[in-house]
Amino acid sequence: MIKTRFTARNFCTSFESSADCLEVTVQGFGTISTPLQPKMIRELIKIAQPSQFGFKDKTLYDQNIRKSYEIEKSCISLGREFEEQIESSLERIKKDLLIPSDGDLRAELHNLLIYEKSCFFDFHQDSEKEDGMIATLSIILPTTYRGGELVIDYQGHTESLGSCNYSKYGREPSLQYVAFYADCQHKINKLSYGYRLALTFNLILEHGKEQKSERVSGGLAKSLDSYFSAQHAVPSNYRKTPKWFVFLLNHQYTPRSLAWENLKGADRTVAKEFKQAAKELDLEIFLTLAESHETWSAYESRSPRYYDYVDDLEEDSEEGVEIDDLVNSETSLSGWIDQCGKKLDYGEKYIRDEFIFSTLDNSSLVPEKSEYEGFMGNYGNTIDRWYNRSAIVLWEKNHSIIAKMSIDLNCGLSEYCRLLKHDFEKSSHLFPSVLAYLGSDYGLQDVEEPILLDFLLAIKKYEFFAALCKHLSLRQILNLGVEGIEELIIQYGDSKIATSLSNLKIDDRSRLIPSVLSTMIKSMWIKAPEFSDFVLNKWIGEFESNISNSGYRFYSKESRLQFTKEIQLNLKSLAEVLTFIERKQFAVGLLDQMVKEIHVFQSIYLFELLSSSDLCDFFEDFEQYRQIKSLAEAEIKTFLKDDLGPSNWKIDDMLPCDCELCTELNKFLRSPITQKKVWPLNKYNRGHIHQTIDSLDLPLTHETERVGRPYRLILRKTPAMFSLRKEKEKKYQDLLKRMS
Q1: Alpha-carbon separation of residue 690 from 143, 508, 656, 694, 695 (angstroms)
Q2: Does the pLDDT at position 687 exceed 50?
Q3: Fewest C-beta atoms under 10 Å: which of 14, 156, 252, 669?
Q4: How far apart are CA 565 and CA 563, in angstroms?
């Protein structure tokens, strides 16, 4: 366990200064100077605006949360002596808040706030209004009032600052300077008497040259060395990731303000020690944003009477809820910054709890957001809390590439490519560990094509390439494009590429696109015959496999239409390729497979596909085509021989399965005289028949008569079958003409 001595401190400061130099000019009013009289303040209120406040991404006005007045900075100008006093106060503020001495603190006026009797502002946190804003400065002007205390809370530490109308050393009016970090919660208590005026400033840290950091304690380095030396057990359901060390800082930062030089108070001391330890131990160090999400079991402590009248607790409220046990917690890291201050394009990374350390638990902080979920039957009575924090992240440099891949696979792989190109011999020893990581369940599925091609070319050695191909799919290789594959063939050779691709993963996650296959084979047939032959055989093999396993695709009209579209696209593209390379005989196996599955497809359906205008010239010379044509012609003539008048209730639709139930249903469908069937069936069997009728959109109604056991399913043929049969009759007559 890593033990640290860092604590939250120095979050605010307060001191007095003379009010002799006070000079504030307000447009439309004039100059404010001492003494401030109530009549003067009432005139100021007349030209002021009611104060609003920010909530999430909105600006709201609600006197239940904030009641005050404000004058915006564009209407205010300060006297020269007063500005000099403010400027001179900044050095003390820097010292008291432990703000880095190598930066310049600048105070930028925000507004003038006016509170009268009954005015207040509930707990809130100031938003960062521009880059580099680190704190807020409030200068309270000398007036007389009661109440109106400024209460500042930081992680359970609270300061309450009252009025500062007179100096400790006399009765002369004085100004009270109050500065506090921007991530502090604070409020203004309700005024019971008088007026309270305060100028507010954004304190912005501007950085000059970084000073050489002093030597810090070596105790942390020893602890980190022991931590990284200890055995790291990887759970079986995790990728082979290296050990991390994540230290949560005490202060809160936004993506806009996060920077090494902007660290506040004790966080800056923490960062110095970690940077020094990282240098000694050859560790990589990063600064990140951290969001912690905790789910706690909870119960409502409200009285039953109160519960009767209130259905749900308000969102973001924990009132009336008692927290019980921690159910789940997760922490994600984002907004990565390296030790030189460069912002990195790494994405979000969820980190395991065992890698996370801090001196301050989330329980000591105010949640950024809180949601209560009442009892929902199978779950509920939980409260979710989110905390926005920041963190220092370390890992060993020899595991850097894998660590970066675990954050963002594309960024990590790009960096490894750069290393391979810069010094292949030095970087190639990392390939086994990279391969072990990429060979996990997720593999290389999410790698962008340009990065994948760059990687395949950068690894140079054919053994590396062949080993990597075991974790790729043919779709990924084809997506590299003709030019990309030509580069691979130039580097590794046509024969070796074809051999290594035979080890491609069997479980391709996405189907091959016929147009891509066609373009690839026609472009590469002369330049890379072995590669092209491999792709062609893979294509035909997958197409045959899809046909042999196509029965399930006929369980609904939609799936049948979709599969028909797939077959048409494949047949058209395949016919173009086989004609181009003069290998028409390659289609024999495909046609053989179609004939084998004719009981599923029906000969009419197959003939309709193969005899389309795009394909008839290609397939008409094949014996299998003539066989399909002959069977289809016989079926069509049989259909047209039947009496197709209104007394014939025969339905010829093909059913997707040949189970006993569907066999019985088929007898009813094909009966020319039976219009109604009463069928005692249990619930499961009724469900199967319902699904078959609805998915195929058969012209039947089905109702369940809930009398006796089992209930009876009542099927009735509808007159819609006659219009459907008319459409089929016209289609079959057109096919007969095509046959002749």
Answers
A1: 82, 34, 13, 6, 8
A2: yes
A3: 156
A4: 5
CA distances to 6, 36, 172, 176, 443 from 139, in Å: 31, 15, 17, 6, 58
Cα-based distances in Å from 39 to 4, 43, 78, 146, 506? 56, 6, 21, 18, 85
Q: What is the DSSP string of 62-98?
A: -TTTEE-EEEEGGGEEE-HHHHHHHHHHHHHHHHHTT
pLDDT > 50? residue 346: yes
Query: What is the rounded CA–CA span in Å between residue 47 and residue 29?
Result: 8
Residue 49 main-chain phi, psi, to 5 deg: -110, 145
Residues 419-464 have pLDDT tens digits of 999 999 989 999 998 998 887 655 677 889 999 999 999 999 999 9
Q: What is the dihedral angle through the alpha carbons of 636, 639, 643, 648, rounded to the nearest 10 degrees?
A: -150
Looking at the chain, how many residues does it have? 740
Dig out the tokens for 288 from the structure.
């990140």
**454-491 b/e (C-beta count within 10 Å ≥ 16 → b):** bbbbbbeeeebbbbbbebbbbbbbbbbbeebbbebbee
pLDDT of residue 215: 47
What whole-number distance in Å separates Cα of residue 704 and Cα of residue 604? 35
Tens digit of each residue's pLDDT (9 = 90 or more) over 281-311: 999 999 999 999 998 887 766 544 334 434 4
* R_g of the chain, CA atoms, integer Å: 38
Residue 215 DSSP class? P
Mind giving me the DSSP string for 113-129?
Answer: EEE-TT-EEEEEE----
How far is Cα 536 from Cα 547, in angstroms, rounded to an integer?
Answer: 17
Contact 517, 577 (CB under 8 A): yes
**Euclidean distance between CA atoms 154 and 12, whole angstroms:** 9
The secondary structure element, H or E, covering residue 512 is none
Q: What tokens does 354 get?
A: 């065992």
Structure tokens belonging to residue 514: 């016929």
Sheet holding 69-72, edge to edge: 12-18, 174-181, 133-140, 196-207, 103-115, 69-72, 49-50
Instruction: Give the torsion sign (CA, 238, 241, 242, 247).
Output: negative
What dihedral angle (degrees, nearest 10) is formed by the CA atoms of 695, 696, 701, 705?
-50
Is the sign of the CA dihedral 278, 283, 287, 289 positive or negative?
negative
Query: How far is residue 274's CA from residue 268's CA, in Å, rounded to a whole number?
Result: 10
| Angle value at C-alpha 557, between 553 and 563, nearest 5 degrees | 40
529 φ/ψ angles, rounded to the nearest 5 degrees: -60, -35
Residue 295 has a CB neighbour count (10 Å cut-off) of: 16
What are the strands, taking DSSP E only, across 97-184? 103-115, 120-125, 133-140, 145-147, 150-154, 157-161, 174-181
> What distance in Å separates the CA atoms of residue 610 and residue 240, rounded to the nearest whole number?
51
Residue 408 has pLDDT above 70, yes or no: yes
Measured CA to CA, the distance from residue 475 to residue 517 in angstroms comes to 9
Residue 95: count of CB within 10 angstroms of its CB? 12
Question: In what helix (H) or strand (E) does residue 53 lie, and over which residues does it extend?
Answer: strand 53-55
**Percent of the chain that is helix, strand, coil (3-state, to 5):** 40, 25, 35
Which residue matches tokens 């593999």? 443
**Torsion angle, CA of 88/92/94/98, rounded to 10 degrees?**
170
Tell how far CA 45 is from the center of its chain.
48
Instruction: Dump pLDDT digits (tens) for 231-250.
Output: 766 555 555 678 899 999 98
Q: Which of 75, 209, 200, 93 is nearest to 139 (CA)?
A: 200
